[in-house]
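Hi again,

Forgot to attach this to my earlier email, sorry! This is the prediction with NAP bound. I've pasted everything inline since the attachment limit keeps bouncing my files.
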Amino acid sequence: MIKTKAYAAQSANVPLTPFEFERRPVGDHDILIEILYCGVCHTDIHAVRNDWGGTMYPIVPGHEIIGRVIQTGKAVTRFKINDISGAGYLYDSCRHCYQCAHDAEQYCENGITPIMGGQERETGAPLYGGYASKLVIDERYAVKVPAALPLAAAAPLLCAGITTYSPLKYIKAGPGHKIGIAGLGGLGHMAVKFAKALGAEVTVLSTSTAKEQDAEKLGADHFVWLSDLEAIKTLYGHFDFIIDTISAPHDYNIYVNLLKVNGSLILVGLPGTPLQLDVSGLIFKRRSISGSLIGSIHETQEMLEFCAEKNIVADIEIIPVSRINEAYERMIKGDIKYRFVIDMATL
Ligand code: NAP
Ligand code: ZN
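Structure tokens for the complex follow:
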């Protein structure tokens, strides 16, 4: 077993504190990663605070992991010692269903094993995430980080990056598309960068007027403040797609009405509350609503290569792990530009 230092929450209503546990031994197909950086996703907060129900405590959050390979199992072929490797939310899946066999493991028909808060498929042992010193993972679920990417700013690509890249690729986002990005946080700011890099016309739909200049710097063509009802009215029927990255309960009907005929609202934000919908907004314009979960391992590797080629990383604020509770409070207030990344050397 591998002794691992971490930060964990012992229940929903207490701050995260230092915690120690043991990772499973390195199996034939596993790599052992010394974690260097871990991004802080709003999913970590939802899980710690039990927003979705079912959180098992203690929970070690963290699923935007970048680190150095320090040991490889006998049968490992893709990694060698000292390689820089990444891991995201997807820790394991059944490996034999249709989705697993077709590079879509995130939609595993037998359910995915998340890296945080899940259980090892074979032993049922609890799984702890990336606010930790080390990680053992099957090489099949790890990615190689291109040398061109700065490590700390690349960590958020493992979740915020792939979660926005995947739906944009699925809809073949490109020139001629008008795309709205709802919510300018960790996911939202990556969505702006990817949609622009793919050639779309991008509008940020935000509740924070203070983010207008940032939206432009990130590459957005337009910025609309959601409380500006006159500006909102001019956008009725405007967008081909809107990617909704909003972490808190909100009114989806506003965004549906901004779509063209046949337009689509793609949900990635997951507040965990039921959706109240006026279905006539869909029916009268043949609009649709869909969802999207992270991306496959293959697609995550492709996204990292795309980022290396196009010079895309997250805008980050590096923090020591001791400031994680403060970081959560700031994220809930929207006070973040645009992703916290924990320097794991501070553990
Ligand atoms: P984040 O950095 O905290 O950003 C969320 C943004 O939502 C905020 O910056 C804010 O943008 C907007 N927002 C917050 N409260 C709002 C409200 N009451 N009404 C309207 N807008 C509001 O969060 P994140 O890490 O990007 O994660 C966003 C969501 O995606 C979370 O629910 C997370 O669990 C989910 N997620 C899903 C997947 C997936 O695979 N589908 C993967 C990762 C994360 P403005 O200030 O611009 O309004
Ligand atoms: Zn995430």
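Residues 297-310 form the longest helix (14 residues). The chain has a mean pLDDT of 97.

That should be everything now.

G.
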